[in-house]
Design brief:
CATH architecture: Alpha-Beta Complex
Number of domains: 1
Helix content: 25-40%
Number of strands: 7
Shape: elongated
Strand content: 15-25%
Largest sheet: 7 strands, mixed
Order of helices and strands: HEHEHEEHEEHEHH
CATH topology: Maf protein
Structural class: alpha/beta
């Protein structure tokens, strides 16, 4: 007797998202979610502190290459008491950033844009991260690791940077650079079943 494949197994493969980012962290998160994707470097210049605008700007910059596929753009920044913490240019700047975040709660704010030629979804997700009180030894140890290089706020929560953190309120993956919970919700709503969600 022949048993047909379950409907979920007989669907054609999902079209890969076009990821408008060269971030290894964002690629890693999409791989964890088992969402197929191709990478294209965005042709977009950031001019102000607005993650939502940056996300949609990056996504729009590669939309012409999408060939009907959905495009994903994302931008993340670290904010504490109104100060935006970018990527430190030196070990001294990294240490200063980390010291100023010590024992305090900061926001990791990501803009996420999912769009096609027909529609755009643009959202902003915020996760609260509280650092424990860091000693000079803690700071020296982390700065010496050089993990801070190329990281907004001078730390990577998925690595040794986890040792700096006391508490997180919100999406952990958002702190890595892509709000996974938000993305899954949008894929479930816009492409129910296509990517395994919804």
């Amino acid at each position: 007797m022949h048993l047909g494949l379950p409907e979920s197994m007989s669907q054609p493969p999902a079209p890969p998202l076009l990821l408008a980012s060269t971030s290894p962290r964002r690629r890693e998160i999409l791989e964890l979610l088992r969402v197929p994707f191709d990478v294209v470097a965005p042709d977009y210049e950031e001019t102000e502190d607005d993650p939502g605008a940056h996300a949609v700007g990056k996504a729009r910059s590669v939309l012409g290459l999408a060939e009907g596929r959905p495009v994903l753009g994302c931008d993340t920044e670290v904010v504490c008491d109104g100060r935006v913490y970018g990527k430190p240019a030196s070990s001294e700047e990294a240490e200063e950033m980390l010291e100023s975040l010590s024992g305090r709660t900061h926001e990791v704010v990501s803009g996420l844009a999912l769009l096609t030629e027909a529609w755009e979804e643009v959202h902003v997700e915020t996760t609260l991260v509280t650092f424990r009180s860091l000693t000079p030894r803690d700071l020296a140890h982390y700065v010496a690791s050089r993990e801070w290089e190329g990281r907004a706020g001078a730390y990577a929560i998925q690595g040794l940077g986890a040792s700096l953190v006391e508490r997180i309120e919100g999406d952990f993956f958002n702190v890595m650079g892509l709000p996974a919970t938000l993305l899954v919700r949008l894929l479930a709503e816009r492409f129910a079943g296509t990517y395994g969600f919804g």
